[in-house]
Amino acid sequence: MNDAVAPGQGPTALNSTQTAPKEVQISMGQDNANAREKSNCRSWLLLGLLVPVVAAIVTVVWYYEGTWYGLAALYLGLMVLLVIKPGWRWFYIAAVTGPRDTVALIAYIRVLLFIKRLERKNLNVGDVFEATVARQPDKLAIVSESQKWTFRQLNEHANRVANVFHSHGYKKGDVVGLLLENRAEFVGTWLGLSKIGVITPLINTNLRGASLQHSIKVGNCTALIYGVSYRSAVMDIAKDLPAHVALYQFNDETTAAVPTEGLAQGLAQQLNTLLESAPKDKVAAGASRADHQDKLVYIYTSGTTGLPKAAVITHSRYFFIAAGIHYTLGFRDNDVFYTPLPLYHTAGGTMTMGQALLFGSTVVIRKKFSASGYFADCARFHCTVGQYIGEMARYVLATPDAPHDRQHQVRMVFGNGLRPQIWKQFVERFKIAKVGEFYGATEGNANIINNDNTVGAIGFVSRILPQVYPISIIRADLHTGEPIRNEKGLCELCAPHEPGVFIGKIVKGNPSREFLGYVDTKASSKKVVYDVFSKGDKAFISGDLLVTDEYGYLYFKDRTGDTFRWKGENVSTSEVEAVLSNLVNYKDTIVYGVFIPQTEGRAGMAAIYDPTREVDVSKLGTALASAVPSYARPQFLRFLRRIDLTGTFKLRKVELQQQGYNPATIEDELFYYSQDNGCYVPLTQPIYDQIQRAELRF
């Protein structure tokens, strides 16, 4: 990850004069739900009583005073009724959020028209890309530290790939996996395969052994293209793969000597040699072709909670993702995009790379993310839009000040995972005019975007016309994510500020509302909830806890299962992580719940990546006491010597949670919060044994 671990290299905030952030509201707050329900019932009752009264008055005025006075009375009567239900506040909110909703509605209509036009013509991604090439063949499409490819070059490589695999008998519906680093050929390869209707699973380059083998098998691959850098990983599992899986090795131009393992034994073919002799101007006549609704690629989940699952991305879905963010955030065709994210995930490979393939923009890529190199690259390549994800913004913020922090042309950054606690610091330090924070799952249909720079919001749902884009937050068990149903067996909407599970209504045939799920149909079925607001309807259930404010802005709270209960209160791990990370100079921080014998709920435990041990534990306890409620304060601390991140910079907490806090099995330093001493003290084996015998008070 290069210097992405920069947070562990500077002085800690606890050893400086930094003041602790104000106390955050950790409680999930469902206490007022019943009160709101009663108030709602009273409003409807009053409305029911007033309707006949107003109707009678209007009738009398109309009868005795004539039409004009009758119309005036009708107008005033309607105003009175609307003040009661939905109420005067609704009109205020409608006025405030109207401009936001109008901009989003126009963008949404443009997206649907864009996709419908392509659908009518049955165009696929390759077709739209070739039209882009025809318009601007010599414009730069993809730029990196070592490559500068024009649209013509990218298309020629794609045609060569298509012709090689067509000549080898591959056709529409076949599956060829791709394991390759961030480089122009990555895009050209899956694009070329798509031109003959072949589906390409984009495999995470960090996978090894059983996980890599699983990804190849679950994608039903009939062949695998791998970069020479991953030769050893592939050869380790080659003999365990199904016999029909053909292997193709791609060697980049920087390889001095081509490794022959696999090639010499006949296990793999040299793809470079095959490409050199293949036609580059067009795809061979007679090759199969993909339709608009056909599968394009498989994109794997990060695997934070188990083995990766292959999510289905069709050509139509690719259009919707790339065009959706393009129109909603106001991207320009002449923008230069910067993404250091892996191209095998949706964020970098679809959202950003789609701007080049569909709209003709230039995309700057990087093999590996560098925190100190982020804005240096943006300045060097004259980028106008930057992309972030996960913890990336925090890593960049933790780097030392540099001249390129503000000497760049970036007018906007977009991504997901920019925490509210560092949002303002980030935009002020790096002079960013606009942040486009979005939320969405690769496999899901509940996708939202913050289009008006509201700090901390991940998107919004219209308070005026929520039916236009049917996404909702429903009441659910905060620990299991299971929907809470009423006496009719249906789900219920959450009130403003009430946390619940985020869902998206499934509508067949609507590109924004379809749920394509995973290759594994059993895994797909677990993400669908039925009988939501009426019998027979269904929705994609995200598994994420969100809240909305009265203006319709949505805020991320936690993952279901990550929230735990302690001292009778619900604790949001993501909120505690954000506060704690700020206190330890933006170091990687993971918070989770662990069991203590003879106590109710789970106690908080925080794992902090601090290999050089810079954090002052004695000061940390004091800082936490003023930053979070006592029930949200971690009872245990673990200082990690190494850390494991996913390809999208997500922290893996399942393994840490399973390991618990036993010093006999954990080599890292452990501390616990001593009620007697009022601070964190080392967790020794005798202390651990006392905890297991319930001899210590928590």
From TrEMBL:
AMP-dependent synthetase/ligase domain: residues covered: 129-488
Region (Disordered): 1-20
Chain ranges passing through the membrane: 44-62, 68-84, 91-115
InterPro entries named among the record's database cross-references: AMP-bd_C_sf, AMP-binding_CS, AMP-dep_synth/lig_dom, ANL_N_sf
Catalytic reaction annotation: tetracosanoate + ATP + CoA = tetracosanoyl-CoA + AMP + diphosphate; a very long-chain fatty acid + ATP + CoA = a very long-chain fatty acyl-CoA + AMP + diphosphate
Keywords tagged on the record: Ligase, Membrane, Transmembrane, Transmembrane helix
Gene3D superfamilies: 3.30.300.30, N-terminal domain of ligase-like
SUPFAM superfamilies listed in its UniProt record: Acetyl-CoA synthetase-like (SSF56801)
Keyword Transmembrane helix included in the entry's annotation: yes
Family membership noted in the UniProt record: Belongs to the ATP-dependent AMP-binding enzyme family.
Official protein name in the record: Long-chain-fatty-acid--CoA ligase
Organism: Drosophila arizonae
